[in-house]
Design goal:
- With 378 residues, the chain is an all-alpha fold.
- The chain is built from 15 helices and no strands.
């Protein structure tokens, strides 16, 4: 244990042992603090430097990775200098502590700050116009927000989530029985490699609308016109509002079905073959095997996939913003937050929408974490 190992606590008096412990604790606080200060000013120096950007980026990466490694090494060494009982207690925090600090700084504190801003008017705390819960009242009474809540609940939670789970489960079951399993799964999973913005651009072309006497470049309208129908503005046509949201939901199902299929396929392969064979020998039909054996056996995975997709659909933004900009009755909570915060410059109202969205996601996250704790996902 280095310098402190030269001392035998039994040879020291009470005052000596207390002094050594105090010195150890002092060093355990001082050295990490100095290390943090050095790292911080190192980054400040790099940011203010006149060197080429590529060189600054390279040094920053080395400085950051090396600095973090140095901090871990220093923390571990310092904890080793402490008495055994303290060392055993503090050792786990060597690795958990930095992660908790980052979470607190980048997640917890911004949440508190956002809530503080939501209690003020358009200009936020800088404007000095304290409005209390008025912004939250507006969130639940304003027409566009009610429309956004409807779209999130009815279309994204009520339709997109279950259809994605069902489609992913069906593909996983059917693909497992096909000799072209790898090819089928690759095709279904491939959209996962595309960003949501990129997928929205692709589907914009699919839904593209042109007059009937003009060649249709949109796949869907080309089929409709080819069959003798009229071209339609599928995501904006007012006659089908609010069901134009369905055409946006299709995009998310196309993107997320591969994720659901992958987890379901792994879970299905974990079902003992003897169990399925015994059920079939006893006369169970394939439908009975599916609902009475497969579904209960992988229920943990089904809940995990469902809650994960549910969280995503609650905060859906990219697809809606790229496809329609939240217009034509397709707005959701996240697009309203963006519009109020960055287009209308209404800081207080935008912050209130963000807090409401955050509170809506929390119960689902807690339930998901409890499921992980109680049973294996797959």
């Amino acid at each position: 244990m280095g310098f402190f190992s030269e001392f035998d606590d039994r040879e020291l008096g009470l005052v000596g042992r207390i002094g050594i412990t105090v010195l150890r604790v002092f060093l355990a606080i001082l050295i990490p603090l100095v290390a943090f200060i050095i790292l911080y000013y190192g980054f400040v120096f790099l940011r203010a430097g006149d060197a080429p950007k590529w060189l600054i980026s390279l040094i920053a990466i080395v400085w950051g990775v090396g600095g973090v490694a140095m901090l871990y090494w220093i923390f571990n060494w310092l904890v080793g200098l402490l008495p055994d009982q303290w060392s055993a207690r503090l050792q786990p925090f060597i690795f958990v502590g930095p992660a908790l600090a980052i979470l607190a700084w980048y997640l917890a504190w911004p949440t508190v700050r956002t809530f503080y801003i939501s209690l003020y008017g358009r200009d936020g705390p800088g404007g000095g116009n304290f409005v209390g819960i008025a912004n939250y009242v507006a969130v639940f009474t304003e027409r566009l927000m009610r429309e956004a809540f409807r779209n999130n609940i009815v279309f994204w939670i009520g339709i997109a989530t279950p259809l994605t789970v069902i489609f992913g489960l069906l593909v996983a079951i059917l693909a497992d029985r096909s000799k072209f399993e790898r090819v089928a799964k690759s095709l279904i999973f491939m959209p996962m490699a595309i960003s949501f913005v990129g997928a929205s651009v692709i589907w914009n072309f699919i839904y593209e609308v042109k007059p009937v006497n003009v060649p249709q470049i949109g796949l869907l309208n080309a089929i409709v016109v080819g069959l003798g129908g009229q071209s339609q503005a599928w995501t904006a046509y007012t006659a089908i509002r609010p069901w134009n949201n369905i055409f946006l939901v299709v995009i998310v199902i196309w993107l997320q079905a591969g994720y659901a299929m992958t987890l379901f396929s792994a879970a299905l392969k974990g079902i003992p073959g003897e169990l399925l064979e015994a059920a079939r020998v006893d006369g169970a039909s394939e439908i009975q095997v599916f609902f009475r054996i497969m579904i209960p056996y992988i229920m943990g995975t089904i809940i995990t996939v469902t809650t994960t997709i549910l969280i995503f659909t609650l905060k859906i933004f990219d697809v809606v913003w790229v496809m329609t900009g939240g217009q034509f009755g397709t707005g959701v909570i996240a697009t309203q937050f963006y519009r109020q915060s960055f287009t209308n410059r209404n800081a207080g109202y935008g912050a209130a929408i963000a807090i409401v969205l955050f509170l809506a996601v929390i119960p689902v996250m807690i339930y998901n974490l409890r499921q992980f704790g109680e049973q294996e996902a797959f």
